[in-house]
Amino acid sequence: MRRTKENLRTNKGQEGHRKRLRERFLKSGLQGFHDYEVIELLLSLNTPRKDCKKSAKLLLKRFKTFQAVLEANNESLCEIEGIGPANSLGIRLIKEVSDRYLESKIISKDVVQNPGDLMEYLNQTIGHKTKEVFAGIFLDVKNRVLTSKILFTGTLTTSSVYPREVIISALQHNAAAVIFAHNHPSGDVEPSKSDILITKRLFFALKYVGIILHEHMIVGNEGFYSFAAKGLISKFNREFEE
Predict the structure, then answer these.
(1) Distances from the Cα of 17 to the Cαs of 48, 56, 179, in angstroms?
(2) Which domain holds residue 30?
(3) Short-list 40, 10, 14, 13, CA closest to 25
(4) Pair 134, 234 in one domain
(5) Residue 80 contacts by C-beta under 8 Å, 6 or more apart in sequence?
(6) pLDDT digits (tens, 9 = 90+) for 79-106
(7) What's the domain count of the chain?
């Protein structure tokens, strides 16, 4: 009987804590929330009768950052105490929903003249990945976004990025222009020699079929690097015309 009463008090305390978290969110959004509290609130949606704080803190301890928790795969998430298939699904779903929302904000917009939404989208979708990914954002003749696509995954080298596949993908989407973006998991956004060579090869290959390369952006924890802003795209164009 004593244990039952203690359990009831514990359950009531947990319910009160979850209720306060939800009320804080409904009143002010996530302003003032710690990362573990955001995760805890998310976990509580699929685990309504269990304290989720411990699991939330274990997730951050294992994956180090809030972004890394959202990027984690199903198997890794389920290794954490208190995280089952339902919670893993919820975490991965919220990340995909967020990505889809940000993508919808750039579709049909001129991201060449107004790159703010594009940068937000790239930071969210590839900026915190633990592996390098190479994305293409395909544009129409008015530089409005048609779609975006991950073209290659893994360490980028001249032998792993194929101009032929890029051209095929651009033509399939009826693209008049392209923006490339890839991430540096190290956080350092300075381009490597390989990054510059790959961009030059792609610029020339696309130019031969009448598709414009506007930009290649490298994103990471330390900001971003713009090939166009640094004059490299203009340099490639001068070399093409010589």
Answers:
(1) 11, 14, 46
(2) 2-100
(3) 40
(4) yes
(5) 55, 58, 59, 62
(6) 999 898 989 998 988 888 888 888 887 8
(7) 2
